[in-house]
Amino acid sequence: MKRQLIIVAILLGLLAAAIIAALSLGAERISVISMTELDRTILTEIRGPRVFLGACVGASLALAGAGLQALLRNPLAEPYLLGVSNGAALGTMLAFVLFEGSEWSRPAMAFAGAALATVAVYQMAKSRAGMNVERLVLSGVIVTTFLSSVIVMLTTLLDAAKLRSFTFWLLGDLSQATTTGIFISFGALLLGGIALISQARALNLMMVGERDAFDFGVETDRVRLLVFGGASLVVGASVAASGSVGYVGLIIPHLVRMTIGGDNRIVLPCSVLTGAIFVVVADTFARTLIAPRELPVGAVTAIVGAPLFIYLLRRS
Q1: Which residue range is the domain that position 65 belongs to?
Q2: pLDDT for residue 276
Q3: What percent of the chain has pLDDT over 70?
Q4: Burial code of 124-156, b = ≥16 C-beta within 10 A, e = fewer?
């Protein structure tokens, strides 16, 4: 227990350092000691909301990835690969087209799209013998491809200005952060985190096998419903606010398990903190590498995440 508390304290310190660095760095550097009125405006209205939204997004995606990997007993399970992110993106796009003036419609429809995609993939992957890893990955690829095609078709309904904005958002964009978006993302993270972390002990048993977990008294249907619902909620809110930020839900849980072991009681909260650190740092690079222009944060996470996952794959 002492070791776990030390790890959590270290991650909290690293997250605080990443947030302070992200608030200070950018096209316009901000000095905490001698802050001007312009610096305060940049900090409170532009950079601050973006940094805190990035932390919520990273924490949400890493939490969803860790929960899905534990539930499905599949190291490749993550929101992007299983089509959950694309389902949320499609829901957000429909809200963008149909309810342009309502900011609350985007996370609501994103959650609905994520939930429907999750159910579809799970039902396609089931067989009489139980959950099949190969069927799960194939089902996720099929659903992801189908939803991507629908999104591309719907982009023809957008004019040139909206198309450019939506395309940049789809690649992962935190520049449109708003106070409402932060509250929605944080609220979804809080509810989803409670739902998933409360099932950590049950997930430990289900990683051995659902039948064995049921014999030990685990209500597998209830656990499955809470994990799928919590993952869909956090992914829907994240995608609605920032677009598709890939690889966070895939590599962060792997790194955490390699470092501290496979106990989900510590893996889930540590994944939340590590995911937040990863996206905050990635967005800082996205804002500063070619300043004053910006890169999509999803491109940065993919550039870092893909080689890292290949290394983890070869090592294991």
Answers
A1: 2-315
A2: 95
A3: 92
A4: bbeeeeebeeeebbebbeebbeebbeebeeeee
CATH number at residue 251: 1.10.3470.10
For residue 172, give the 3-state DSSP assignment.
coil
Element (H, E) at 126: strand 126-127
Q: Which two tokens stand for residue 53?
A: 């939204």
Q: What is the pLDDT of residue 54?
A: 92
pLDDT, tens digit, for every residue of 162-217? 777 777 777 788 887 888 888 889 999 999 999 999 988 888 888 777 676 776 77
Q: Which residues of 241-257 are buried (b: 16+ CB within 10 A; e: fewer)?
A: bbbbbbbbbbbbbbbbb
Nearest to 203 by CA among 179, 223, 182: 223
Q: How far is it, in rounded angstroms, from Cα 268 to Cα 266?
A: 6
Please choose, from the candidates 223, 195, 204, 178, the residue with its C-alpha nearest in 3D space to the C-alpha of residue 56.
178
- The tally of domains found in the chain comes to 1
